[in-house]
Amino acid sequence: MLNLIIILLILSCSNEKLNSTKIHKIKLDENRIQFKTDRSKLFYLQNELDSQEFEQIKKKEIIEFSKDVNSGFQNQKFEFTYTGYFNIAHTCDTTKKDKLIRNLEIFFRDTYPLYFQWEPNFPIRLVLFPDRKTLKKETGMDVYGFYIPNSRESYPNITTKTIYTYCISGSGTQWHEVMHAFLDWNAKEYPPSWFSEGIASFYEEASIIDGKMVDGYVNWRNPTLIAEIKSKKNYSTLTEIIKGKDTSRESFYAQARFLFCYLWMKGKIVPFVRTYLYDIHPKFDYKERGLKTILLLEELLGKSIDEIEIDFQKEALIAGPKMKKLKLK
């Protein structure tokens, strides 16, 4: 089930080093094209369109979306709208709906080009229920939100490529789940939990200041990581989580998240994400990915993985248990 649903719950190895400055362009799909950084022209689903063509496509998408949602959740009265690649079914008032649209637009504009290489090739659906109680009742999931990349036969009313949350879940929940969708746009095989939950939960705490995304914050997860570091009980090293150990640990999300905070503080989060996503994840099997990822960390940070582990724990303790803006180091 874990490979079907992304939920917010919130040694043989070559000695050659990965080049941390060059991002290799791995051709995942002959039909995919590079992301268009120049958005002055209307570009949608890998095609340049005029405004009339775009509106026709969106109209068809919304009609299909509304049929699926209204048949799946007959007790809810949804309104439908869209912005760019996002089709939205919501039960929100106008103020919350407008804020959601603004947050989605800014998040896509400022975050997607940083990390990702491919033009999106399918629209993302968002379904927003009135509250968490209704989300649980209608979907069976007692969470803030979740993203469905693949089919779930046991839940026929749950559609794929869809984010499910509720109107007052908060922008952090929405950004977390949208980041999962961004990853789905860019990886044939979905990345492992330490990576996908790490980068997604990194954006649980972010701000829009003067119309721009501002990231790099400690959030509510850090006290769990601090407690585990201090107690020295059940703590798994970065090497262990990168190799796939202990994903069910209470502090797993906190540790995975702070890895990306740590990389942000060192100014290495972008090359790490891009190199892992396009140069490691699609090229190597499960075992080799872990080894290559450790080499990548050592290359980017100029330290051995043991030295990185010591520094990582120190920075997590310094960051503390309360929400605050981190500083580049």
What structural keywords apply?
329 residues; alpha+beta; two-stranded antiparallel ribbon; 11 helices; disordered N terminus; single chain; 46% helix
Could you please describe the fold and organization of this structure?
With 329 residues, the chain is of the alpha+beta class. It has helices at residues 51-72, 94-115, 132-139, 171-186, 193-202, 222-231, 238-242, 252-265, 269-280, 286-301, 305-319, and strands spanning 6-8, 43-44, 47-48, 79-83, 86-90, 124-129, 145-148, 162-166, 207-209, 212-214, 217-218, 324-325. The strands form 4 sheets. It has a 6-stranded mixed beta sheet with strand order 1-7-8-6-5-4, with helices on both faces. A two-stranded antiparallel ribbon has the order 2-3. α2 packs across α4 and α9 runs antiparallel to α10. It starts with 5 loop residues before the first strand and ends with a strand.
User: Whole-Å distance between the termini?
Assistant: 39 Å
The number of E-state strands comes to 12
The overall pLDDT average reads 89
Q: What integer value in Å does the Rg equal?
A: 20 Å
Overall 3D shape: globular
Poorly predicted regions: 1-28
Strand order of the largest sheet: 1-7-8-6-5-4
Order of helices and strands: EEEHEEHEHEEHHEEEHHHHHHE
Q: Largest sheet, if any?
A: 6 strands, mixed
Structural class: alpha+beta
- Tell me the number of helical segments per DSSP (H or I, 4 or more residues long): 11
Task: Please give the share of residues in helix.
Answer: 40-55%
Instruction: Please state roughly what percent of the residues sit in beta strands, choosing from under 5%, 5-15%, 15-25%, 25-35%, 35-45% or over 45%.
Output: 5-15%
